[in-house]
Design brief:
- By secondary structure, the protein is α/β, with parallel strands linked by helices.
- It has two domains: 162 residues, Periplasmic binding protein-like II (D-Maltodextrin-Binding Protein, domain 2); 152 residues, Periplasmic binding protein-like II (D-Maltodextrin-Binding Protein, domain 2, 3-Layer(aba) Sandwich).
- It contains 14 helices and twelve strands.
- The strands form two sheets. Strands 1, 2, 3, 4, 6, 7, 8, 9 and 12 form a nine-stranded mixed sheet that branches. Strands 5-10-11 form a three-stranded mixed sheet.
- Strand 10 and strand 11 form a beta hairpin.
- Helix 12 runs antiparallel to helix 13.
- The longest helix has 15 residues.
- The chain is elongated.
- The two termini are 31 Å apart.
Length: 359
C-alpha cells in the first residue's frame, strides 16, 4: 500500500520534487462536507503528508464571503456565483472567478414521523405549501392523496430550515421557485431567504437541521441526502416533471446532470426534465481565482502548484470516493469542463493550470 501511495505522489510531481509541506485552507458548503473530508484525508496520504487541507464547513454563503475577502485559498458552494458577483470579483481583483464542479449531490425532504415506516411521497407544490405554512398537519388531505394506504397522524408540522447562508437552501428554494408561483412571489430563491412566519425552527448547517429533525416528532426539513442516511432520518421521494416519484439514489442524481453545460459550468439542475432524474439535484463547486496571485491567501508558486494539482486530483482520481458516500461522480461532460477550467489557472502569468492538466 505504501508503495502505491508513493507512486501516486510521484505521478503528481510532489514526492519527487522535495516540496516542503503545504497547508491549504478552504471554507464553505456543508452539502459536500462528508466527501470533502474523505478527499482531504486521502490526499494527505497520497502526497505523503506534504499537502494538508483545512476545510471549514460553514455554509456556502460563508465560503463565498471568505473567498471574496481572500482569507482562504478556495471557497466551496452548492450554487455558483451569479453574474453580478462574477462581475464584481473581476472588477475588484482583476481576476475572473472560476466555478469548478467536483461532485453531484441531492437535497431531500427529511422528516420525523413516529409510527410511519413507509417512505412518503411529495410533490414540489406540496413541499412549497408546507414550507409556506399553508399545510399545517401531517394528515392534511394534500399529503394523504400522495400517500394512499399510509396512516398519517394528526401531528402539527414543524418546519426546520437553515439559519445560516446556505447553498443547500439555495438549491431547495431554487427548486420551490420553479414549481410554485406562490413560493416564487413570496419567498424566492437564495442562500438566505425571509422565511414566512409559521411553526418554523432555524438551525446552522446540514448537521444542525438533521439534528433538529431527528429529535423533533412532526418535523420536516431539507438536507443533502448523505446527512439523512448517516443520521438514519427518513426522507421522501419527490415527483419529477415526468410525474414519477423519485428517490435520491445515484442513478437518479446522475440522470439530472445530463444537461448542456455552459463553458463556465454555472448551471441549475433542479426540476430536471430527465424522466428518471431526481428533481432536487445539484453540483457543488470549488470557487477559485483564475489568476491565483490575485488571491492574497497564496504566498508562493509552490502553494499555487500544489493547489492546482489537488484540483486535478479531485475531479479525476478522487471521483471513486463519491459513490460510497451517496454522491454521484461527475459526468464525462462535467469532468471535461472542470479540467478545462482548471487549465485556465495561472500564477504570476505562468500557465500552471495548463502545465498540470496537460492541455
Amino acid at each position: 500500500m505504501r508503495k502505491l501511495l508513493v507512486t501516486t505522489a510521484a505521478l503528481l510531481g510532489l514526492a519527487s520534487s522535495g516540496l516542503a509541506q503545504v497547508n491549504l485552507t478552504g471554507a464553505g458548503a456543508t452539502f459536500p462536507f462528508p466527501v470533502l473530508s474523505k478527499y482531504f484525508d486521502e490526499y494527505l496520504k497520497v502526497t505523503n503528508n506534504q499537502v494538508r487541507v483545512n476545510y471549514q464547513s460553514i455554509g456556502s454563503g460563508g465560503g463565498q464571503r471568505q473567498f471574496i475577502e481572500q482569507t482562504v485559498h478556495f471557497g466551496v458552494s452548492d450554487n455558483p456565483f451569479n453574474d453580478q458577483q462574477m462581475a464584481d470579483i473581476r472588477r475588484n481583483t482583476g481576476s475572473p472567478a472560476l466555478n469548478i464542479p467536483f461532485v453531484l449531490g441531492a437535497v431531500v425532504p427529511t422528516y420525523n414521523l413516529p409510527g410511519v415506516t413507509q417512505r412518503l411521497n411529495f410533490t414540489g407544490e406540496v413541499l412549497a405549501d408546507i414550507f409556506l405554512g399553508n399545510i399545517k398537519t401531517w394528515n392534511d388531505p394534500a399529503i394523504a392523496r400522495l400517500n394512499e394506504g399510509v396512516r398519517l397522524p394528526p401531528l402539527p408540522i414543524t418546519v426546520v430550515h437553515r439559519s445560516d447562508g446556505s447553498g443547500t437552501t439555495f438549491v431547495w428554494t431554487d427548486y420551490l421557485s420553479k414549481v410554485s408561483p406562490e413560493w416564487a412571489q413570496k419567498v424566492g430563491r437564495g442562500n438566505s431567504v425571509n422565511w414566512l412566519p409559521a411553526n418554523k425552527v432555524g438551525a446552522r448547517g446540514n448537521e444542525g437541521v438533521a439534528g433538529v429533525v431527528r429529535n423533533t416528532p412532526g418535523a420536516i426539513g431539507y438536507n443533502e441526502v448523505t446527512y439523512a442516511i448517516q443520521n438514519r432520518i427518513q426522507f421522501g421521494a419527490v415527483q419529477n416533471r415526468a410525474g414519477r416519484f423519485i428517490v435520491a439514489e445515484l442513478p437518479a442524481i446522475t440522470a439530472a446532470a445530463n444537461v448542456v453545460l455552459p463553458g463556465d459550468a454555472r448551471v441549475s439542475l433542479t426540476d430536471t426534465q430527465a424522466p428518471d432524474g431526481y428533481p432536487i439535484s445539484s453540483f457543488a463547486y470549488m470557487l477559485v481565482y483564475e489568476q491565483l496571485d490575485k488571491n492574497k491567501a497564496f504566498k508562493s508558486e509552490a502553494e499555487a502548484r500544489a493547489f492546482v494539482q489537488l484540483l486535478k486530483w479531485m475531479v479525476t482520481d478522487a471521483q471513486k470516493f463519491n459513490e460510497p458516500l451517496t454522491y454521484a461522480r461527475l459526468t464525462e461532460v462535467a469532468q471535461a469542463r472542470a479540467l478545462a477550467l482548471i487549465s485556465r489557472i495561472t500564477y504570476q502569468g505562468k500557465p500552471i493550470g495548463r502545465e498540470i492538466v496537460g492541455r
